[in-house]
Design brief:
It is built from five helices and seven strands. The chain has 202 residues and is α+β, with helices and mostly antiparallel strands. It has a seven-stranded mixed β-sheet with strand order 1-2-3-4-5-7-6, sandwiched between helices. The radius of gyration is 17 Å and the shape is globular.
């Protein structure tokens, strides 16, 4: 198999899995429990300037992937998306994949996936553990919505755990409305609220 065919096969794999529950409307909640740092995390975090006020949101590049995967793994352990997934996501959805930066450090990311010509879903949004509590989820969500509008999308959807009151409150403050509660959405006991936002300017 040629290298080009291998790349095409990897891209197809993301496309074919997109409708599966584990790959649809997955919101990485900023209120996830803080677990102890694994041995691989020690040292990396010590060099991160969590107190920096120089936070920006920009298009994701391939150089960001390893850092994004690190933050994902730190919060979600075995349930985390892999670096390979993020590489494939960037190949398929480069215009709706954002990275939150703190100076030269990576503080989080947002991944939006088109589901129709006029709508997209917030598949995943994450703020790194040591960067939480600074309003950065709000910044990342605001910039994600602004980007979606600038690209001409008319609606955004997402899912969130019903018990995640802070996330639900944040979404409602941006105008998201709950449309449905789905039991076992991401597996047994993993219920989710489905929420939508009109991106049409009033």
């Amino acid at each position: 198999m040629t290298e080009q065919n291998k790349k095409r096969e990897r891209v197809y794999q993301v496309s074919s899995n997109r409708e599966k529950s584990s790959h649809k409307l997955r919101y990485v909640e900023a209120s996830a429990p803080h677990e102890s740092d694994c041995r691989l995390c020690v040292g990396s975090l010590a060099t991160t300037d969590a107190e920096s006020n120089d936070f920006t949101v920009a298009n994701t590049s391939y150089n960001d992937i390893s850092k994004i995967a690190f933050l994902e793994k730190q919060l979600y352990s075995n349930d985390a998306y892999s670096a390979a997934f993020f590489y494939q996501a960037l190949r398929q959805w480069p215009h709706t994949f954002l990275t939150l930066k703190a100076g030269e450090k990576t503080a989080g990311y947002s991944l939006m996936v088109p589901v129709s010509d006029s709508g997209l879903s917030l598949m995943s949004l994450l703020v790194g553990k040591i960067f939480q509590g600074k309003g950065l989820g709000k910044l990342l969500l605001s910039d994600s919505i602004a980007l979606a509008r600038s690209l001409g999308y008319k609606q955004m959807e997402l899912s969130v755990a019903p018990e995640n009151a802070s996330a639900v409150s944040l979404y409602r403050s941006f105008g998201f409305n709950t449309t449905q509660t789905v039991r076992d959405y991401l597996g047994p006991g993993q219920d989710r609220l489905l929420m939508t936002l009109s991106l049409l300017e009033n």
